[in-house]
UniProtKB/TrEMBL annotation:
Residue span of region Disordered: 243-264
Organism of origin: Westerdykella ornata
Protein name (record): Cell division control 14, SIN component
UniProt keyword Amino-acid biosynthesis, yes or no: no
Family matches, as InterPro entries: ARM-type_fold, Cell_div_Cdc14
Amino acid sequence: MEALLSLAFDNIASKDTQKIRKGLRQIEGMLAQICLASGRSKPSTPAHRRNASAINLSEQPQHAPKKLGALSEDLAFREFFRLQEGFEWNVAMRVADCLERLLGMHSDGQNDLLILSALSNLQGLLLLHPPSRTIFGREVYMNLLLDLLDPYNCPAIQSAALLVLVTALLATPQNTRTFENMDGLLTVTTLFKDEETTQSVKLKLLEFLYFYLMPEAPVPAVSAPNTAMGLHRSPSKLVGAFDRRSSTVSGDDGGGPTRKGIRSQEEKQHMLGQYLSNVDALVQDLQETAPFTSVSC
């Protein structure tokens, strides 16, 4: 896996768009191998291989997503998670740096496609390795996502950037504070009120505002062993390993849940009310419909 990542990193660090495209596809392929089941219920026999050309395409096994619990037993995922713990092999940071370079390049249709590919990879990386979300607690990376919400970007990029922004803020209150400190609410609401913004993007902006207004929950603070070692000792506690690592990265020293850096729903409602006039209605709708049950902001 190190050899594949090294090759992909070299490609996405290039100024050649063909190499960048190749590197992003290499990362996407690696993520697909981790997330998708093989689709084989049993090894193929020689007869199966000889007659493969005669099999109807609709009858071939489909690649289904793996269940989260199954990932804890997956050797490729274990290795991927272990590598992400170090600076040298962290893919999310490399893809974010690639995005920054793409934004500085000449804007055209091909460049937009590369940006969309990078955003898609980044969303998957933040979901597979939640501790990587902490990079968006740094202003340089949060500013990158906010730049992608500028009106001059195409609607597809704006929508994809919103999905990554939600993933970056998910269960990471410190990132939400960075978002607020960098006038993220002003950026989002300005785009929402802009007459040029498409309806599809406005819908995603509205969904983001619902997400932002959700009550925040502190990350469980417990004594955290090294995550990679924890995965080997207790694979069935994969989700717990995510939470433990998140609390360690954020500098929590244990001793029970902490509300440091947490804002109440009322506080966020007041902040958003500086830019929108109908926030009370949004909160009421959020409380009545509960669109994001079982999700912590």
